[in-house]
Specification:
- Helices cover 40% and strands 17% of the residues.
- Strands 1, 2, 3, 4, 5, 6, 7, 8 and 9 form a nine-stranded mixed beta sheet that branches.
- β1 and β2 form a beta hairpin.
- α3 crosses α4 and α7 packs across α8.
- The chain is an alpha/beta fold.
- The two termini are 22 Å apart.
- The longest helix has 20 residues.
C-alpha cells in the first residue's frame, strides 16, 4: 500500500511516497523505516528497484523528491525572492520523517519510528547532515557515492577540465550538449570511455539530467536553488554519528567523491565500506548486488 501526497514547507511543497510492506511479517511493525534520498542528477524514482525489492521483503519505505526536483514544487513567492533563501535539505528531510509518523498512528514505540537514511550523491550529503542534526530520528545511515559538507578534496586536473566544460555550454544555452556531458560525468565516469554505461541506465540518467537542466535554465529547480549546509559542517562532526553506518563508492567515479566516502568510512565508528567497479550511479549499475549488500547489512543491525 502506498500513501503519497504533498507536504507543505516554507518554500513550497515536497512530494513523498510511503510504501507499506507487500508481504507483512511479524517483525515489520518493529523495524525502522527505510528512507531513500536521491541524487542531484535524479529524482525519487532513482530508487524504484530498491523500493520494489525491500517492500517485498517486508520493509516500510519512505522516499521523497528533494525541493527543486521531481514532483516537488516551489511557491511563486519563493521564486520571486531576491535573493532567495538557501535550502536546508536536511531540515526538509526531518519534516518528511515527522509527517510520515502521523500516517502510522499504530506505531507507539518511538525507537521503531526512526529511519535508516539511505542517500546517494547529494542525497548522501543530506543524509549525513540529517543524521547529525536530528539524531532522535535516525537509527542507521547508508551513504553511497556522496559528498560531505566541509570536506575539501579536489579532483584531478583532467577531471576539473571536464567538469569546467559545463560553463560554456550553459552560457551558449546548448541544452543537448550539457545533458550529454553530465551523463558522461555521472554515468560513464569522468575518466572512462564515453558510452561505457549500460544503454538503458544511460537513457534513464539522460531523462533526469534533461529535466533538471531545464529547471536550472529557468531558475525553477536543481542547482538554481542554493543549498544551506549544516553549520558547523559535517566534516568535523562525524564523531556525533552513533548509529551503524554503511558506505559504498564506485571506483570509476570522480576522485573527490571517492575520497569523501573513504574519509567517512575511516572516521565513523561501526562503519563498513563496499567498493564497486562503477561510476556515480552505483545502485543502477549493480542493482541486484547493491540490494543484497544493503539487505545483509540491515539484517545484521535491525532484525
Amino acid at each position: 500500500m502506498i500513501h503519497d501526497g504533498y507536504l507543505e514547507i516554507e518554500e513550497g511543497e515536497l512530494f513523498f511516497e510511503l510504501s507499506t510492506p507487500l508481504l507483512p511479517r511479524s517483525r515489520a511493525s518493529t523495524r525502522p523505516t527505510l528512507l531513500f534520498i536521491h541524487a542531484g542528477v535524479a529524482d525519487r524514482t532513482l530508487w524504484d528497484y530498491q523500493v520494489a525489492y525491500f517492500s517485498s521483503k517486508g520493509w516500510e519505505i519512505l522516499r521523497y523528491d528533494r525541493f527543486g526536483y521531481g514532483k516537488s514544487r516551489p511557491k511563486q513567492a519563493y521564486l520571486d525572492q531576491r535573493p532567495r533563501s538557501k535550502v536546508k535539505h536536511y531540515q526538509h528531510t526531518a519534516e518528511i520523517v515527522r509527517h510520515a509518523r502521523t500516517l502510522r498512528p499504530t506505531l507507539s514505540d518511538k525507537d521503531h519510528q526512526k529511519v535508516v537514511a539511505v542517500g546517494l550523491s547529494m542525497g548522501a550529503a543530506t543524509s549525513i547532515d540529517f543524521a547529525i542534526a536530528f539524531p532522535d530520528l535516525v537509527c542507521g545511515l547508508v551513504v553511497i557515492a556522496g559528498w560531505l559538507t566541509g570536506f575539501d578534496s579536489p579532483n584531478t586536473p583532467k577531471e576539473e577540465e571536464l567538469f569546467s566544460r559545463q560553463t560554456p555550454l550553459i552560457e551558449a544555452k546548448d541544452m543537448e550538449g550539457l545533458v550529454d556531458l553530465r551523463v558522461r560525468l555521472w554515468g560513464d565516469g569522468p575518466l572512462q570511455p564515453e558510452g561505457r554505461l549500460d544503454k538503458e541506465v544511460r537513457q534513464q540518467l539522460y531523462t533526469w539530467c534533461k529535466d533538471i537542466a531545464e529547471r536550472e535554465a529557468t531558475g525553477t529547480g536543481g542547482s538554481a536553488f542554493e543549498d544551506q549546509d549544516l553549520d558547523p559542517p559535517a566534516v568535523g562532526r562525524l564523531s556525533e554519528i552513533k548509529t551503524p553506518v554503511a558506505v559504498a563508492l564506485g571506483t570509476l567515479d570522480e576522485s573527490s567523491t571517492i575520497s569523501a566516502m573513504r574519509y567517512v568510512s575511516d572516521h565513523v565508528q561501526a562503519s563498513i565500506l563496499k567498493e564497486y567497479k562503477a561510476g556515480h550511479m552505483v545502485n543502477l549499475e549493480y542493482p541486484d548486488d547493491f540490494n543484497v549488500w544493503l539487505e545483509e547489512w540491515l539484517n545484521i543491525h535491525f532484525q
